[in-house]
Design brief:
By secondary structure, the protein is of the alpha/beta class. The chain has seven helices and five strands, in the order βββαβαβααααα. A five-stranded mixed sheet has the order 3-2-1-4-5. A hairpin with a 4-residue loop joins strand 1 and strand 2. Helix 3 crosses helix 5 and helix 6 packs across helix 7. The chain is globular, with a radius of gyration of 20 Å.
């Protein structure tokens, strides 16, 4: 009687292809990139920008453009995960609010397709790619040229915004899931947890006096 056939082992998880979408949020120019990862091999599928300069000053129109284009990219490339850069806390409040909305719309587009997302601080992204959290856009782009085969991009002026998004995707790949805590990163939840008095100030409400 022939010996029973043994089931073939499943392929190693780390060798299964994964597509990561990286996004560098912006209200005028939003960079995006998609990479395919198989083990240690990284292939750049595309990197480009969503250019909203021609849409005028109507912020709602720009947010809709971000949402629609994100869905187009998601449906075309079917990414497994979204990596997105966190807003930088050094800009003025109005710019930060607009940037946060742009980030939120990009995240909402991913979540509408059941795609999980991870947020990374700008310094974390730069450190992961170049080894320095204070690297310039040009230094990030130079390092990506050294480590990846970059397909040509239509307009050279868009290159740095697109490579910023590519660096976010690559940062996520380097983390390999170890991203529960982002070194040097901040989030609205963390900020409010560390500064509870700001919550009342931001909503115009005052804290009730403590009961005696």
């Amino acid at each position: 009687m022939p010996a029973p056939l043994r089931p073939r082992p499943a392929p190693a998880v780390e060798l299964l292809p994964k597509i990561i979408m990286g996004v560098d949020p912006g209200t005028q120019i939003m960079g995006y990139a998609l990479i395919e990862v198989r083990g240690q091999r990284v292939d750049v599928l595309c990197y480009d920008v969503i250019n909203m300069k021609a849409l005028g000053s109507n912020h709602a129109v720009k947010l809709k453009r971000i949402f629609d284009r994100m869905l187009e990219l998601i449906d075309e490339y079917l990414p497994d995960e979204l990596a997105i850069e966190a807003p930088f806390f050094g800009v003025n409040v109005q710019s930060m609010l607009k940037l946060g909305r742009a980030q939120g719309v990009a995240i909402a587009a991913a979540l509408s397709r059941q795609i999980p997302y991870v947020e990374y601080a700008p310094t974390k992204v730069k450190q992961s790619v170049t080894g320095s959290g204070s690297a310039t856009k040009e230094q990030v782009a130079h390092m990506l040229r050294q480590t990846l085969t970059l397909p040509p991009i239509a307009e050279a002026s868009k290159f740095l915004d697109a490579t910023d998004a590519l660096s976010v995707a690559l940062c996520h790949h380097y983390q390999k899931g170890n991203n529960a805590t982002v070194s040097g990163g901040k989030s609205w939840g963390k900020f409010l947890a560390d500064n509870p008095e700001r919550l009342g100030a931001s909503t115009g409400k005052k804290k009730a006096p403590a009961k005696s």
